[in-house]
Write a structure and sequence with these properties.
The protein has 13 helices and five strands. It has a three-stranded parallel β-sheet. It has a two-stranded parallel sheet with strand order 4-5. Helix 3 packs across helix 12 and helix 10 packs across helix 12. The longest helix is centred in the last third of the chain and has 30 residues. It is globular. It starts with a strand and ends in a 6-residue tail after the last helix. The mean pLDDT is 91.
């Protein structure tokens, strides 16, 4: 029995992934290598929906790829590649754009949220249509399952609608992807503002922990994490969001339940909890940081691994795009 195919991507828009990325995606991607025919891409085409410095984008793309391998993705067990290395992504996105209604695209919530920050007049057309490129990413690989969080459900529904529409108009071409509900991962909040999600776009530098961060900096940030005046260590989302966040991080990285941690730290101070948690985080990220640095020290080998992944990806993307061209009515080259 063949394994279901899964596809997911991550943007190269920072110098390091952060703790929320690791718990919400990377760690689960590693586990899925054994249960799925897994395709993972660094989505540099998505990154340019907002202005990017070319040299920085190039460096961050390598850093992102190195972290994927450093976190445990095995090129012999999954396919890891850079989105722009497979030109079929952009070609299929154009075809799907021509199947998408303007009103349909306008209803995508994330565009409204992101454009509201800088103003719709300055937002790029690429930012407006990127859910269609995301649909192309998925459909290109005849993907069975797509890992989704709550913020991506609407985009997956658009993907399913476009696949069904194309199949109805032109004959069965695409697999209709279904959501793969990730194991329940607690929302990781900003260390300085536990009311908001840990995020590169929203968090302050002191509120976010990076995978590649220096251990001393990790210890310092966790030591300064916001708690409250009540010294009791217990989870309470409403009255103790900062302590709850620390307990969630601890639980997610160790597998120990929040209830067990509450019992273990009963009567202890916040300082003890923070000190122990800092070591848990440092120990979790140390091997990833070491492997990532080794990868980046040999860019030629890293680029070769990505070229290998792109070649594997094109073996699937090429036939899909050939079928799309034929069904649309494009003339085959002589």
């Amino acid at each position: 029995m063949s394994r279901p195919r899964v596809l997911s991507g991550i943007q190269p828009t920072a110098d390091s992934f952060h703790l929320g990325n690791y718990l919400g995606a990377l760690r689960q991607w590693v586990a899925m290598q054994d249960s799925h025919d897994a395709f993972y891409c660094v989505v540099d085409l998505h990154a340019i929906t907002v202005p990017q410095d070319p040299a920085l984008l190039r460096r961050r793309t390598r850093v992102a790829a190195a972290q994927l391998f450093g976190a445990g993705l095995d090129p012999d067990r999954c396919t890891v590649f850079v989105q722009s290395h497979v030109p079929e992504h952009a070609e299929l996105a154009w075809v799907l754009s021509c199947q998408t209604g303007f009103g349909e695209a306008s209803r995508m919530v994330q565009f409204k949220d992101k454009s509201a920050k800088s103003g719709a007049d300055t937002a790029s057309v690429g930012l407006f249509t990127y859910p269609i490129l995301q649909a192309a990413d998925i459909l290109l690989y005849q993907t069975d399952e797509v890992p989704v969080g709550e913020d991506q459900r609407q985009h997956l529904e658009l993907t399913r609608d476009l696949a069904q529409r194309f199949n109805h108009r032109y004959g069965r071409t695409f697999v209709i992807p279904r959501p793969y509900i990730l194991a329940d991962v607690a929302k990781i909040a900003d260390l300085q503002d536990p009311e908001i999600k840990m995020s590169k776009s929203a968090s302050s530098p002191q509120g976010i922990i990076d995978v590649l961060e220096d251990p001393a900096s990790i210890r310092r940030k966790i030591g300064r994490a916001v708690t409250d005046a009540d010294a009791e260590i217990r989870a309470d989302e409403k009255t103790k969001p900062g302590v709850t966040n620390l307990l969630r991080i601890y639980s997610a990285l160790t597998g120990e339940s929040v209830a067990a941690l509450e019992k273990r730290y009963s009567g202890a101070g916040y300082g003890t909890l923070k000190k122990d948690l800092a070591e848990v985080v440092v120990d979790a990220f140390a091997p990833i940081r070491e492997r990532t640095e080794q990868m980046l020290a040999d860019e030629a080998q890293l680029d070769q691994m990505l070229a290998h992944g792109a070649a594997r990806a094109r073996k699937v993307a090429g036939p899909t795009m050939a079928a799309v061209r034929d069904r649309i009515g494009f003339l085959s080259p002589a």
